[in-house]
Design brief:
The complex is a heterodimer of chains A (226) and B (106). Chain A is mainly α and 226 residues long. Chain A is built from 9 helices and 2 strands. Chain A has one domain (10-215): Arp2/3 complex 21 kDa subunit ARPC3 (Orthogonal Bundle). Chain B is an all-alpha fold and 106 residues long. The longest helix of chain B is centred in the C-terminal third of the chain and has 38 residues, at 65-102. Chain B has 2 domains: 1-56, no CATH class; 63-106. Classes of the chains: A mainly alpha (226), B mainly alpha (106). Strand 2 of chain A pairs parallel with strand 1 (35-36) of chain B, so a sheet runs across the interface.
């Protein structure tokens, strides 16, 4: 989902920065507030960032015969809410743009929008919906992480189709083309990300129940009784 | 083996299977099978819009594929290292809490 350096026309690159900036600013404030209010959650916050760090570094083969990588942002979105992930995801993308020439500084705004904003929000919305519908924790986390991952790649496809409409058939054809490259490749990876996120949440439930209760992910004893 | 551990192992194996299956089934195609989707998208842009000039170049590019993969490995190692540290700390804390709960101070 990394749009390469220089591969968005300047105006569009700037527009994506303008769209992403408020989310990142709001996210930074939320992050600072979160750490102040609940210093004990710092370590878990680091772990959520670390999860994104690992998953977005792993390029995994897919059924389409190409490779792609998961995003790892769904887990953090479920634990800490999406605004925090706009910062953590942004840091990962900045690291990759500067050190790995993967993605780019000119396309950072667009890449943040897909991976650090839309992905986490979709993940959180799916999680909330499944939980409200009475779905279990595992199912909710799986669906959230998998669909958040997939949403990120769909946004990338739209961004590229907007920037590079098909010379003959326009936006829709370009969307189909980029969707074929990104979204279809991503399906098995999204499933993998869902499974890994479930694994981490299961382990967290074992080791860090107090943290999860404070964050509102697990019900407090009072809520259980009620 | 406890059910908790068994389920976790099944989750890991499923992820492994999903990653290995495309290679094992030989689904790769073209000159360079299993190339990155990002690179494919870049190629698609170049093919359809030959006059598009990327207007900004990366300020730093890893000098070779080896250095690049080293940096990717570093990224994964940092993340995995921190996750391992986190679970080590969390597990120890959990144990200390449960020991403290079992043996109340006199």
């Amino acid at each position: 989902m990394h749009i390469a350096e220089g591969y968005l026309p300047p105006v569009q690159a700037a527009a994506w920065f303008a769209v992403s900036a408020p989310f990142v600013v709001h996210g930074s404030r939320t992050l600072v507030r979160q750490v102040r209010r609940d210093p004990d959650s710092k370590l878990l916050l680091g772990a959520a960032g670390a999860f994104t760090f690992v998953l977005s570094a792993l390029k995994i083969p897919s059924v389409t015969g190409s490779c792609s990588h998961p995003t790892g942002t769904g887990l953090g979105a479920v634990l800490f809410r999406p605004p925090v992930m706009s910062v953590l995801g942004g840091i990962v993308l900045l690291f990759q743009a500067v050190l790995l020439a993967h993605g780019g500084l000119s396309t950072l705004g667009a890449n943040i929008f897909s991976m650090a904003i839309v992905g986490p929000w979709v993940a959180f919305a799916v999680y909330a919906l499944v939980r409200r519908a009475g779905g279990g924790m595992d199912v909710a986390v799986f669906a959230a992480a998998a669909l958040g991952d997939l949403a990120t790649y769909c946004v990338t496809s739209v961004q590229l189709a907007l920037a590079f409409p098909d010379p003959a058939a326009g936006f829709v054809a370009a969307l189909a083309k980029f969707g074929g490259i990104f979204a279809v490749t991503q399906i098995p990876l999204a499933i993998s990300e869902g499974l890994l996120s479930v694994l981490v949440v299961r382990l967290l439930t074992r080791t860090s129940g107090d943290d999860l209760r404070r964050l509102g992910v697990l019900p407090t004893p009072a809520e259980v009784r009620a | 083996m406890k059910r908790f551990t068994r389920t976790n192992l099944v989750l890991l194996l499923a992820v492994l299977a999903l990653a290995v299956a495309p290679v094992a089934l030989g689904l790769g195609s073209g000159d360079e099978p299993f190339t990155g989707a990002d690179a494919l998208a870049e190629q698609a842009i170049v093919d359809d819009h030959p006059d598009y000039e990327p207007w900004f170049a990366p300020i730093y590019e890893p000098p070779s594929g080896e250095v690049e993969s080293a940096l990717f490995a570093l990224q994964a190692a940092l993340g995995a290292g921190f996750l391992g540290y986190y679970f080590g700390v969390a597990r120890t804390r959990q144990r200390q809490r449960s020991t403290a709960a079992e043996q109340p101070r006199e």
